[in-house]
Write the structure tokens for this entry.
Amino acid sequence: MIRWTYACIDRPTALVGPATDFWTTVTGTHASAPWGAGRFTTLLPDAAGGAGTADACLMVQAVGGPGGAHPDLAVEDVPAFTARAARLGAAVGPHGPGSAVLRSPGGQPFCVVPWRSRQDRPPVHGGPGRPESRLDQICLDVAPASFEAEVAFWTDLTGWDATPGEHPEFVALRPRPDLPVHLLLQRLTEARPASAHLDIACPDLGAGRAWHERCGASFVRDGPAWTVMRDPAGGVYCLTRRAPETGR
């Protein structure tokens, strides 16, 4: 059973400072002291924003490549969950103290980490000049030939409900409401290595774009129900027209 979920924002080491500054601003969080040999920074909910008792669900990781995003799944029994993932087809990589790094059959990285009694989901972020929003989704970008197998793998691994999206290239995996980060799988139109990006629920895309541009992001393009943006570290993410409270 997955007890908590994290979105890990992977950004190049040389740009992790600007990335952390940006993501704390647009998510209503503040940065912890770096940990894990300085590679990781947890984004802690701001007490001033009414989230003093909420638990963190976002991290920034300094990486050697161009970066992206990946999910961390927190469970009570890391070895058992890791073994189960391997039986479903995941490749198991290096192990840290009580954690494991894996790749899905389609090549998507993810981590299994210990559950540390996290249970209070951070609230929706908003305020004067800041439209309501919530970073609540990781979109796994999957090559066409791997899509059905990836949907099956992630559905079996998580036990979450798989729901077709409004557009045929999407399948959403929805956990129980108290988990802060869920998954969306997107079928790409061309073959390319597995990747992932962050999605922020933001009903007013125009106001969301303007706010994120003021915070240092740049506009990439519009989609039918989303706006693609690029953060100051070069990472692409989406504002999606969904309700921040429910993710729908």
Remarks:
- The radius of gyration is 17 Å.
- The mean pLDDT is 93.
- The CA atoms of residues 143 and 248 lie 25 Å apart.
